[in-house]
Amino acid sequence: MVENPQKNAKKGRFCPFRHDTKNPKKYRILGVICYNLVMAAATEEEKKAAAAAALQLITDNTVLGVGSGSTAEFFIALLPSVRQKIAAARASSERTARLLAAAGIPCNDDISELDLYVDGADEIDGNRQMLKGGGGALAREKVLAGCARKFVCIADSTKQVGRLGRFPLAVEVLPMARSFAARKLAAMGGGPCWREGFITDNGNWILDVSGLDLTAAAKMEMEINAIPGVVDNGVFARRRADAVFIGARPL
User: Which pTM value belongs to this model?
Assistant: First the structure.
């Protein structure tokens, strides 16, 4: 028999359904926490589904490139099941290389061509253009994307946007060029912020730039890379993804 929650409340038992008129703020906060937990779980399931969808693209003797970030790590966790199909692999970061090695898949940095490159995104639009670099591996990620015959982006639905630019754009710079590059980026309409304390795998620094107009994303990508001292930036418009999975759904 289902007990009456109001009756339980009168007996002094905790009842999550009871409206506490003395402290409504507490229940609003609990509601927000519960909602965020549910959404986080749903997002995680979408990431896993996208990773599983990309796994199906690995065929015999695939030369594989693997990106960085939480969604890419779900993909790495699935790779032992297809290890025998992977001829060689290359990683976009030192962390990814360690995770691949732990999964029994050694990396070879001498590989110049990839059959398949799988990576996540911070933002992706309907034209398969992306912003990447939240984890700081954008320069190596762009190298692997350029090496790949097929570049597949895996993401959850929170990363899908109508137009790029809500997420700050990561720009990797030589340490000696930080101030100079920041002034140039500010003159282009951006608000650069040094990611203090963070050093890329290449030994460089990151400027996170908000407020740039990325309507012409490929043009902006080239203009930023023309600044002396800039190594690369996180706009992936000139080499956009060939295929995208938002959860299990192709974009």
Answer: 0.83
